[in-house]
Amino acid sequence: MRWRCAAIFGAGGAIGGALTEKLASDGTKVFAGSRGARAPEAENVTPFHWDLTDETSIADAARLMSGSPPDLVIVASGILTLEDGTGPERSLKQITAENMADIFAINTIGPALVAKHVLPLLDRKQPSTFAALSARVGSISDNKIGGWHSYRASKAALNMLIRNYAIEMQRTHKQASIIGLHPGTVDSALSEPFQGNLPTGQLTKPEDAADNLLAVLDKVGPSDSGKVFDWTGEIIPA
Fold first, then answer.
1. Across the beta sheet with 128-133, what order do the strands follow?
2. Which of 73, 102, 87 is nearest to 7 (CA)?
3. 189 versus 67: which is more confidently predicted?
4. 83 phi and psi, to 5 degrees?
5. How far apart are CA 17 and CA 138, in angstroms?
6. DSSP string across 184-212
7. CB proximity list for 132: less than 8 A, separation 6 or greater
8. Which residue from 13, 237, 210 is spatially nearest to 138, judged by alpha carbons?
9. C-alpha closest to that of 47 among 56, 59, 38
10. pLDDT higher than threshold 90 for residue 179
């Protein structure tokens, strides 16, 4: 077991739930956050309520874990299709201020607020890792086809924040790693509307995605802070 204590923000989702189960089964103490404070049942799992759009709930979660600070924090949340069924824009004509704001609130601002309240809890003298789920489509240099404007922009902004936080934390937490993770296309509510056009074998089960991400996390260190990795450990360009 590498991790003494982990905090999963988004444990109610497919990837977050699988990460919680994998870590708990390895003996890691897990704080598991979701909107309804639902989490896999295990003696070493402590569920908590949180909402990406409610900073008070994030601050409350940080206080909950302050007595046993995590050495691994994963923000396993994100949105591609809005709750009303509105999918990613295929044309700039489809952009609305309201929809773009909703996408940024979940994909960018929410993880930023988690970092604001949880990064100060990390031990200044021991190794620790903060990871947020990002996406390859957030890479500006890798963008060859355009589209999905709000989603791409929100993930690109998240990647910039990851880099910013890595630089800032290096001043006080020399052994901390702040990274982004691209899990691939996982069988989840986020990818469900787009699974029909996927090539055979490209869709990953949540439990396999969790194994892939934890394998990457086992290998990263402070020299990798500020980077974004895919599920194979490959660095995604900015």
1. 45-49, 29-34, 5-9, 72-75, 128-133, 176-182, 228-230
2. 73
3. 67
4. -60, -25
5. 24
6. -SBSSTTTGGGGGGPPTT--B-HHHHHHH
7. 74, 75, 111, 114, 115, 158, 162, 179, 180, 181
8. 237
9. 38
10. yes
Cα 175 to Cα 34: distance, rounded to the nearest angstrom: 28
For the stretch 105-160, pLDDT in tens is 999 999 999 999 999 999 999 999 999 999 999 999 999 999 999 999 999 999 99
Helical (H) or strand (E) element with 154: helix 149-170
Look-up: residue for tokens 């890792």?
Answer: 129
Note whether 176 and 220 are within 8 A (CB).
no
Contact between 212 and 232 under an 8 Å Cβ cutoff? The reply is yes
- Among candidates 11, 129, 4, 134, which has minimal Cα distance to 61? 11
Among candidate residues 3, 9, 6, the one with its CA nearest the CA of residue 49: 9
Backbone angles phi, psi at 174, to 5 degrees: -65, -25
According to DSSP, the β-strands at 29-34 and 45-49 are parallel
> Does the pTM of the predicted model rise above 0.70?
yes
Is the pLDDT assigned to residue 91 strictly greater than 80? Answer: yes
Total residue count of the chain as it appears in this document? 238
| 39 DSSP 8-state letter | -
Contact assessment for residue 59 and residue 65, using Cβ atoms and an 8 Å cutoff: no
pLDDT digits (tens, 9 = 90+) for 38-63: 777 788 999 999 999 999 999 999 99
CA atoms within 13 A on the CB side of 221: 3
Q: Are 73 and 93 in contact (CB under 8 A)?
A: no
d(CA 20, CA 6): 9
